[in-house]
Amino acid sequence: MNFSLKWRAIILTSLVMVGLAGTFTLFSYQNLSEQFTSAQRASYSKRIEDINMALDRSFNDLQKIASIVASSNNLGQALKSRNYSFVDQTLHSQWPTLQIEVGIESLSVLNMEGQSVSTFGNPQEGIPGDSMRAWEQNVILDEMPAKTLICTDVCRQYIAVPVLEDGESVGIVVVTSSMIDVILYTNKSSGGDVALLINGGEAGSRSHYLPSWKSSIIALTNEKKELPLIRKAARSNSLESMTSRSVRLDLDHGNYEIFAMPLESFQSSGDVSHLLLISDITPQVKGIMENTRSTFIIAVLGWLVAEIFIFMILWKPMARLRHLSGVLPSLALGEFDRVRRKTKVKDKKWKDEIDVLDKAAFDLAGQLENLEDKVSARDQELSERLRELAREKDFIGGLLDNAHVLILTHDRHGNITLVNRHAQEVMGKQRTLKGASFEQVFNLRMRSAIRLSGGTRQQESTIRTHGGADIIVAWVHAPLEPDANEATFISVGLDITARKQAEKRLAWLANRDPLTELYNRRFFENKLKSVMGDKNNKGGVLYLDLDQFKDVNELGGHHSGDQLLKLVAQALIEEVGDKDVVARQGGDEFSILLENASVDDACHMASRVSRKLENIVFYENGRRHRAMASIGVALYPAHGTDHVKLMANADFAMYKAKEASGNKWYLIPDEYDTSELQERVYWQDEIRRALSEKRFELAVQPIASIEMNTIQHYEVLLRMRDEHGKLAMPGLFIPAAERSGLIVEVDRWVLNESLDLLKKLQDQSVNLAVNISGTTLQDESFRAFVEQALSSRSLDPARLILEVTETAAVTDFSTANNLLKGVQALGCKIALDDFGVGFSSFHYLGQMPSDYIKIDGSFVSTMLESQENRLVVKAIADVAKGFGKKVIAEFVSDPLILESLKGLNVDYAQGYYIGLPVRPEEAFSMLKESRDA
After folding, report:
1. Contact, 517 vs 601, CB < 8 A?
2. Global pTM?
């Protein structure tokens, strides 16, 4: 059944108009009531503000008075010196003025212990002692003025100010005043009555007691009129509700309003007191009711007139609305074309709302059609984005679970909110980490460290795993919300225990010999230099060289040699103890520093060490080996005032002991032939000056391919010019360089110069072979030196061949083997020089890293006269070929030897017949031409 919108509109508008009339009337009444309520609220706010201001002024005036009293002349000094009688005398003269003219009720002075030292006036009764003492103690501790309001039978304002002496608090002054003046001021300024209400008390102890509020009225401006009103309010309302809104009451045909103002902001403790603000609102209520009746009559008359006009106006527009209502449902069905056809959009000068609806329906059809297309496209885009987010979530989840690092997040309180699988496994699967304190679980103070370090978010901490092991973790922290003041952090931790242990091991190895774990040569020299730096110190040095150690290496292999070195090191530690320094100088040489030792002490120690070493016997591969050593003894400062000269004397003494058939010790006598020693010192000084004055020179000797008859590479040889310009051969200065340790610096000079030469020859296919001493083979930093030297010149490492003698390589096989492998890993080539002179050459051939084998020249030079030597050359070449190494024959001095080598598997030849050692400028024409230019 259809019910015309026209009639429904008329009926509904009638109902609406009636409702509007009633609503308007009600609204008018409520509006007037609200305006009155607002006015009353504003009035109460103003009265409360006035009361607060009055109380504040009263407190401020009271504080000024207290401050004047506190700053009284010599009051602070008297309190500080505990001259309380002076305090009492000082205030006694001021009290009458304060009591009569200012209205002060009481005045008290307390010392720093909170004890009252002087009191004037009548203290307020009924105050809980503990709360008062606590308030006074807070003032003493804070050293700041404080105020409070305390109500018992009366209400008083309290002010306490500190008494200062020399910038230090020595006590406090407490001043009180009654609230009566504030109440009278409120009554006079507002025109309304005021009552002061105190919580607590009993009906018999106070007059005007209100049982329902458990409070008593202690002050009232109009008792006869307002007391019955307050009692009525107390029976029907709670005191708490009246503090947030006023209460209206009818009494004796009059209307009244009561509002309770709490005084808790002025009270530091105890029961809260209230001021009751009472207003007579009878005239205002009567005015509101008269205005409401007039409004209702006017509204009813307006409804009747409006209903007639509405009927006349709505007749034609309703017909147009019926047409539009039949078209609009097509929008919901998506029939946008039909809506556009049926909608009558006319171009009128004056348009009404229905015209606007027609135009809106027409436009809406087009917009909804476009929106439907966009929604469809957006739906597809969102679906694709959701799939991408799902993939990213799976990726991040897999990363968190599979990453071998500790990943955690923790909130601004430091509590863990997320833990990855590895972190849970490290701390134990049974342990609950979520919700625990991150800093306590992982033993670090992250947030305080970030603040103290200026934002650094990297830390290390030691944590104990579920297995009981301690690990070191390096943490990196990052805020998940960088802009937040207290951000949530993500912390990523990496176990660096192995790295820390390696660093500690490296620091230990810097001063230790890795094989014997004794101190190394560098540490010994630094220690000796430090001890001899003090001219008052005296002591000695024992320099040991193992006898026949080479035989042990060659007969028993490098394992036997290493075992012997360890046994010797252990024996020296046992004999010498911890008080003196025992070091391995390198190879089979050891040294002992005896501090504060006399000649007898040094000789006695040398004898003990010699006997100790004689007792070392061990078996390896069925062979019996013994430890014997030649020991040189030198004393400081008798045999040297610096560490270089002292070590040279100790080395000299060691060789003297070795000359006496070995297994002996030798002390340099007070008078001895120093020519040999002077020669050693001379060559050491010459080497140092030659290095600083650049008096070393290079020479190169060609090495030829026997099959191709071409020069393949050159061996670099060293020469030195003395101070007169005369050329010195290596045999004169190399032994001194090796004994003094200067050979390491010489080796590096030769290597640098050789690489500079290679740089100049980079356009020619020339390789250079550089000799390296046995001392350098024990220098663990040599590999890094070679790598840096090659990279700084951008040279191909394959063009550099490092030559080491077989004897030097096997003296400390483990160290030399590791170093040569490291250099070979860089791409350099290795050549074993003087091969064949040892007893166990073939034993080391497969173990020592090498690319070339250089047969010792003693076999090659005599192979035409000695069939045995020819067989040795052939055997070495055949075995080397079996290991895939190239073979070089030294000392090829004539064409017959060269011809004889062709059938013996020898690849290269070197000797005077191939070419003499010459300066690089003579060997390489390019260098000569560039120098001439």
Report:
1. no
2. 0.41
**CA-CA-CA-CA dihedral for 853, 858, 859, 861, to nearest 10:** 110
* Pairwise CA distance, residues 733 & 697, whole Å: 13
| Contact indicator for 496, 476 with CB cutoff of 8 Å | no
Q: DSSP readout, 576-636?
A: H-SSSEEEEEETTEEEEEEET--HHHHHHHHHHHHHHHHT-EEEETTEEEE--EEEEEEEE
List the structure tokens of 612: 């100790």
Would residue 247 be called left, alpha or beta, if left means φ above 0 and alpha means ψ between -120 and 50 degrees? beta
Q: Is the pLDDT of residue 588 over 90?
A: no
**pLDDT at res. 204:** 42
Q: Say yes or no to pLDDT of 198 above 90.
A: no
**Rounded Cα gap, residues 184 and 515, in angstroms:** 102
Tokens 């060789």 map to which residue?
Answer: 655
At 895, the pLDDT band (50, 70, 90 cuts) reads very high
Mode of pairing for the β-strands spanning 767-771 and 711-721 = parallel
What pLDDT sits at residue 932?
Answer: 45
Q: Report cis status (omega within 30 of 0) of the bond before 514.
A: no
Q: Which amino acid is at 865?
A: E
- Alpha carbons 520 and 514: distance in angstroms, whole number: 9
Residue 197 and residue 276 in contact, taking contact as beta carbons nearer than 8 Å? yes
DSSP 918: B
Give the list of residues 6+ apart from residue 686 with CB closer than 8 angstroms, or none.
Answer: 720, 722, 723, 728, 733
- The pLDDT tens digits of the residues spanning 265-292 come to 666 666 678 888 888 778 878 888 888 8
**DSSP H helical ranges for 694-742:** 730-740
Cα 246 from Cα 278, distance rounded (Å): 9
Q: Name the β-bridge partners of 619.
A: 624
Find residue 490's DSSP bridge partners: 409, 478
Check whether 933 has a pLDDT greater than 50. Answer: no
Given this model, what pLDDT does residue 514 score?
84
Query: Helices (H), strands (E): how many in the chain?
Result: 32, 32
Torsion-angle region of residue 911: left (phi > 0), alpha (psi -120 to 50) or beta? left
Contact 543, 647 (CB under 8 A): yes
Kindly state the greatest CA–CA separation across the chain.
155
Residue written as tokens 């919700």? 435
Bridge pairing between strands 539-546 and 629-636 = antiparallel
808/240 Cα distance (integer angstroms): 102
Q: What is the mean pLDDT of residues 620-638?
A: 83
Inter-residue contact 86 to 190 (CB < 8 Å): no
Between the alpha carbon of residue 378 and those of residues 332, 366, 712, the distances in Å are 20, 18, 75
Sheet with 416-419: strands ordered across: 416-419, 406-410, 489-495, 470-479, 458-464
Show the CA angle centred on residue 444, arms to residues 438 and 446, nearest 5°: 75
Contacts of 471 (CB under 8 A, 6+ apart): 426, 462, 463, 465, 495, 497
Whether the CB-CB separation of 895 and 914 falls below 8 Å is answered with: no
**Spatial distance between the Cα atoms of 29 and 288, rounded to a whole number of angstroms:** 7
pLDDT of residue 455: 52
* 655: CB partners within 8 A, 6+ apart: 630, 632
Distances from the Cα of 806 to the Cα of 60, 177, 588, angstroms: 102, 109, 15
Distance in angstroms (rounded) separating the CA atoms of residues 68 and 53: 22
Return all residues near 633 (Cβ < 8 A) that are at least 6 apart: 540, 541, 542, 543, 602, 603, 606, 650, 653, 665, 666, 667, 668
Distance between start and end Cα atoms, the chain: 122
pLDDT tens for 790-803 read 999 999 999 999 99
Q: Dump pLDDT digits (tens) for 346-358.
A: 676 677 767 777 7
- The b/e string for 278-288 (b: 16+ C-beta within 10 A; e otherwise) is bbbbeebbeeb
